[in-house]
Design goal:
Strands 1, 2, 5, 6, 8, 13, 14, 15 and 17 form a 9-stranded antiparallel beta sheet that branches. The chain has a single domain (about 10-235), classed as Jelly Rolls (Sandwich), CATH 2.60.120.200. It starts with 9 loop residues before the first strand and ends with a strand. Strand 5 and strand 6 (about 70-75) form a beta hairpin. The protein is globular. It is built from no helices and 17 strands. By secondary structure, it is mainly beta. It has strands at about 10-15, 25-30, 45, 55, 60-65, 70-75, 80-85, 95-105, 115-120, 130-135, 140-155, 160-165, 175-185, 185-190, 195-200, 210-215, 225-235.
């Protein structure tokens, strides 16, 4: 039986990055170290479990972005993406949930209204969705900021979206480590260790969608840049 809980909404300014809970488990860890022939389809291996993905028009084997990383993936801004089959481990459900990725985007014009880094579902998906994206600023289309979103179903059946955008421009030619966290009722967008948070209950997020890396769908919101070492913690 579900019990109704109150929804709390409080905006917050930048604070120190929130830690994961002590019980969190690493459920997916994509090192992106694979290298294949040009234009080849490559399996993106999950070193933490069985959530392997399939690349599409992704350039593999580019220099790694993280210290000690052998390689990374490059997305072309038009046709690149990686898809990972649906799995319950990749749904937050009602648990704490944190997604992490390291990205590098050259300073310059952003080709779309946003670049998707990783997501599962969209705003119309039954069961809700979650995403990490680089959102283009309307007043200056060379500026992109991390935006994190979780949309779930509350105990009374209504949908609740919490979307938080960080302050720094990350389309600046430098490498940045990004995190999107939902810890309890707090959603945080974290850039290089600094957290920007929103407190709002998002309920249960649980859908049947695939996970998309580097794109919303084929040909839409495709990243033009590099991604390395994407991981998910849950619990």
């Amino acid at each position: 039986m579900r019990h109704r809980i109150p929804t709390v909404l409080v905006a917050a300014t930048a604070v120190v990055a929130l830690p994961s809970t002590a019980s969190a488990a690493l459920v997916a860890d994509w090192k992106m170290d694979e290298e294949g022939p040009a234009d080849a389809t490559v399996v993106m291996e999950d070193s933490a479990g069985t959530n392997d993905g399939t690349t599409h028009s992704v350039i593999t084997g580019v220099p790694g972005l993280v210290t000690g990383s052998a390689r990374a993936y490059r997305f072309d801004g038009t046709t690149s993406w990686v898809e990972v089959p649906d799995s319950p481990t990749l749904d937050p459900e009602s648990a704490d949930f944190a997604v992490k990725a390291t990205v590098h985007v050259e300073d310059g014009q952003i080709l779309d209204d946003s670049y998707d880094v990783i997501r599962k579902g969209d705003t119309k998906t039954a069961g809700g969705f979650w995403k990490m994206e680089i959102h283009r600023v309307a007043s200056n289309t060379t500026v992109g900021k991390l935006r994190c979103a979780y949309k779930g179903i509350l105990p009374d059946g209504t949908r609740s979206l919490a979307s938080k955008q960080a302050t720094p421009d990350i389309v600046d030619g430098r490498t940045h480590t990004l995190q999107c966290k939902r810890i309890g009722n707090t959603v945080s967008a974290v850039v290089d260790g600094t957290s920007y948070s929103l407190t709002k209950s998002t309920g249960r997020v649980d859908n049947n969608s695939i996970v998309m890396v580097g794109s919303k769908v084929a040909g839409d919101d495709v990243l033009q840049g590099d991604i390395d070492e994407v991981s998910i913690d849950k619990g």
